[in-house]
């Protein structure tokens, strides 16, 4: 899973806990790219983990909670240049940015729940769809997007022509974590 995917996963988790809907707009991709670039220039992106992203978003969502703006949790407000500068300034003062635990408890936001259900929902890939795309490149793409990839207990996986590619992709994803 890439940094962008992790970032969006955590962002969507916070939105869901606050009862907001995720609305992707065309300019959001550029905002996230600029945010990741600024993080890379500050810390080196390889050193930034999911716990840092969680703390960052906790800080930003807590700060934005009191705002009266209609789009207070928009991507541009959370990942914009001024938000990052404010966070970096706060974290340099205290060596770690402040997040109030009552905010996290109030909305039942827990770091351990973010990745908990990520693959459980994907595992339930429809076996009818798997059979429909079986032994085709489209089937490999389908499995990459909707399942946890190669499963040795699945009959379709055992006889698939793309099982070696599927295994390699699965091991690469496991190593990224």
Outline: elongated
Radius of gyration: 19 Å
| Helix amount | 55-70%
* Spans where pLDDT lies below 50 across 5 or more residues: 119-125
Strand content: under 5%
Biggest sheet overview: none
N-end to C-end Cα span: 7 Å
Query: Number of helical runs?
Result: 11
What's the number of extended β-strand segments? 0
- Describe the oligomeric state of these chains in a short phrase: single chain
Q: Can you put this structure into words, describing what you see?
A:
With 177 residues, this protein is mainly alpha-helical. The protein has 2 domains: 3-113, no CATH class; 118-176, no CATH class. 63% of the residues lie in helices and 0% in strands. Residues 119-125 have low confidence and may be disordered.
Summarize the structure.
The chain is mostly helical. The chain has eleven helices and no strands.
Labels describing this entry:
177 residues, mainly alpha, 2 domains, 11 helices, elongated
């Amino acid at each position: 899973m890439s940094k962008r995917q992790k970032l969006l996963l955590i962002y969507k988790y916070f939105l869901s806990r606050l009862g907001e809907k995720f609305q992707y707009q065309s300019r959001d991709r550029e905002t996230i790219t600029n945010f990741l670039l600024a993080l890379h220039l500050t810390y080196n992106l390889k050193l930034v983990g999911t716990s840092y992203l969680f703390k960052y978003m906790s800080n930003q969502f807590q700060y934005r909670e009191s705002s009266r703006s209609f789009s207070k949790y928009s991507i541009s407000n959370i990942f914009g240049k001024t938000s990052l500068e404010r966070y970096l300034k706060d974290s340099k003062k205290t060596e770690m940015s402040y997040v109030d635990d009552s905010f996290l408890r109030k909305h039942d936001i827990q770091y351990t729940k973010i990745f908990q259900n990520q693959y459980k929902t994907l595992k339930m890939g429809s076996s009818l769809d798997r059979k429909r795309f079986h032994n085709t490149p489209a089937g490999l793409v389908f499995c990459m997007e909707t399942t946890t990839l190669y499963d040795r207990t699945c009959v379709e996986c055992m006889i698939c022509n793309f099982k070696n590619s599927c295994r390699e992709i699965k091991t690469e994803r496991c190593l990224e974590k």
